[in-house]
Amino acid sequence: MNEQAGSLEAADIAKILSALPHRYPFLMVDRIRDIRGDDFCIGIKNVTINEPHFLGHFPERPVMPGVLLIEGMAQTAGALCVLARETPGKPQLVYFMTIDKAKFRKPVIPGDTVEYHVQKIRRRGSIWRFACEARVDGGKVAEAEVSAMLVDQ
Prior knowledge:
Elements: H1 13-19, E1 31-36, E2 40-46, H2 66-83, E3 93-104, E4 113-124, E5 127-136, E6 139-151
Antiparallel strand pairs: 1-2, 2-4, 3-6, 4-5, 5-6
């Protein structure tokens, strides 16, 4: 926590686990950095051959499923919403609501490090909309717009 700015700048796996209900094998973000309020952040996913989806997608040429890239974007955006909430205490649940303008540009393979760049488009009450890009080595591999909603538990 940056006490002077009053905002969290990064979140390790423990902080992410406290913000999201997802667990292995469905947690698609390992770390979040460059957090700026609820406006922007970068989620990090280290892709390894040990992940269960590579057993069948595809055994001879493992490729991370595009839907999991979208899920990683949504989880990063959802964690940003929870981490940026004004009232500390019991975390609220975050629900993935919509996905628009999804495009896949290049395969993601084991050994890649995916960066989920999440930029807030707008917030209305408990609903956020984000523009997201997944990047590997600085190149865009996927993009989408997603929306998320925080609800009381």
